[in-house]
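re: ur question from earlier - yeah i can do the single chain one, its not a big deal. heres the input i used so u can compare w yours
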Amino acid sequence: MSTLPRPGQRPVDISFSSGPCTKRPGWSLENLKDAAIGRSHRSKAGKNKLKSAIDLTRGILKVPDDYRIAIVPASDTGAVEMALWSLLGERGVDMVAWESFGAGWVSDVCNQLKLDDVSKIDAPYGELPDLHRIDFNRDVVFTWNGTTSGVRVPNGEFIPDDRQGLTICDATSAVFAQELAFDKLDVVTFSWQKVLGGEAAHGMLILSPRAVERLESYTPPWPLPKIFRLTKGEGENRKLIEGIFEGATINTPSMLCVEDYLDALNWSGSIGGLEGLIGRANRNYSQIDNYVASQKWIDFLAVDPATRSNTSVCLKIVDPDIVALNAGDQAKFAKSICALLESEGVALDIGSYRDAPAGFRIWTGATVEASDVGALMTWLGWAFETQKLAIKAAA
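and the output i got, formated as tokens:
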């Protein structure tokens, strides 16, 4: 083991996973004591809990009054798939991707839905595609924040007000930490286990009036499973199932998870709502930004500072000695740093995503404390120097 002195301060909360993310400060199981456990989600108590989750979501995120919000199965993935299978096919679609999850939606549209008129607009990890190439007379599918690349769209100004197609946005690692331009978005999806540190398996689907109009006027040529069906009736009688957007979920939700989400939403309100949440995420990001600016061995994976995420921060090693290694050895070196920090009780789950370039991915969403991020960065530098010395010693 290296003789390098260990840093003094350790993070109090060492969970930096990008999903499920760490719980809010002060969280405990005691906060869930009022959960409607053992009650039907169709009971008055169950419906009230689910409706409260929808109403609080609308209030915190400032979702327009004429947008519908639903709790749906299968996390963000379920919400995105529901939108793709229910809405696409009426016109051509531009698929915009710059990391693994966006690429996954491209694969589903091309290989599962097998749509004929699909244009792919992509970019490598660390970069944002040329957004001016998007044709908004077509439908558009994109992620607001690339969870596995740390690259986000800086704002919604690239989306025109007079668009003819629908904009379908996977916002799961952006919502509650970044300003979303709802007037530019027709479908927004996310899950509870990201910025608010909720439990997994439940998704949220937000629809604009334009998206509702598409649902009621367009029938996809393929069969839809029950958990995807948002409308009832046929032809001119085809209407949105309004109950889904008032808490009457398609399938049975976990009322314990619902209570946990309510707890996170109430905490969000107590710290200043959306502005407070964004402020916390920005302060967490700044800890990393300041550290990277002071170092020569590490840099952001996101090339353009304007596109750098304030939640899923992805970093790469740029030290010349490590860059000179082959890709496999670079990956092993990065993993050795993660393993060392875990063994030291400093950080859990900060390795880059399996499909992303070797490096680190540190979650800095609103439930993380800035002091913990600052302490982690000092330890990250220590671990790098320690492992680099080990390589030299073994040479």
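DSSP finds nine helices and 14 strands in the chain. not sure if urs matches, ping me
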